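To assess whether the prediction recovers the assembly geometry, we first specified each molecular entity separately, as shown.
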Amino acid sequence: MSVVPVPTRLEADDTAVATQLDAATRPDSTLARMRDDGRVQCIACAHRCVIPPGRRGACKVRFNRDGLLHVPWGYAGSLQINPIEQAPFMHAHAGEDVLTLGMLGCNLRCSYCQNWHLSQVLRDVEAPERPTAVSAEEIVATAHGRGIRVLLSSLNEPLITAEWAVELFARAKAAGMTTGIVSSGYATPEVLDFLRPHVDLVKIDLKTLSPQRYRSLGAHLQPVLDTLRMVAERGFWLELVTLVVPGWNDSEDELRGAARAIASVSPDIPWTLWNFHRDYRMRGGSDAGAADVVRAASIGRAEGLRYTYAGVQPGRVGDFENTRCPGCGTAVVERMGYQVTGYALDAAGQCAACATRVPGRWSPQGAVVRPAGLWFERQPQRFV
Ligand code: SF4
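The predicted structure of the complete assembly is given in tokenized form:
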């Protein structure tokens, strides 16, 4: 057990949003271990909170009422259509629009969170988002009716709503869709085993390689590194992203260490280095620019990773937006920001020039290719 946080009393969270979120739950023992004394251990994330009756876990959205673990159910904090490259997945369903579900709350508390309006609603009275009741059928129908083939749980931490995600994903997969999560990777083997039959894609946000800085975010480094290996071993399609924060996580030593940690799992894991912009409670320092993310992506390449990407700086990062065939070097996916502008893989994900397979979960129907210059027109379309 990595952490037993001091939970907040349910009655101390008597705010309107807490009342709404507490109502949008159901008792569920799938990811719970009951104790004889009425406490419940939640195993949905690596905090492994042991929660007495009337108290919350560290994420605040899961709680113990009368000896039963209550988990989020039946709502969305946000439901929107985005390019899959915005997730970012770079080796899956290239160029497609995906339906992205965001819930409320988080098991971490990152001071630079770019989705704090969703993730911090129970910690920060300024966070404005609220739950909207919606059924799993309605969410899948929303995707299906628009010809969308990928459903993602993202924007906040999906593990803290794993049971609801499985309810959605089971229906989505029955409808022939691909499913995925975008997570901080603070997982347990139990939650990964639970998700595995229903989830195809996993994106992990590796925030830093510093144990000390992970603690400042409310977590520990080692469980995240363990998660990389556990996800790969279980056969999910795994990609990584790191937000490059100047002066915080971008020293050469740290980036080299992160690249080595990823490459030790597999050199075929794509790693996207994204540019930080000042947000939420991290307003000092400077934004990262194209040179910062190119430098980070170059370090990843030098450490043996075959696929590193620099974003989001359309047209300013050279070849670090593109995917090259590991066999002959052909640019098999060309991009401009979130836009795919050229595609040279066959239905099996093989290079059109030399037939080398490029790892990923490419759509057998090919990519959605759009002309360069239209990338800015694909703004998220939000339903909830
Ligand atoms: S999901 Fe929430 S309650 Fe469960 S272990 Fe993680 S922080 Fe604790």
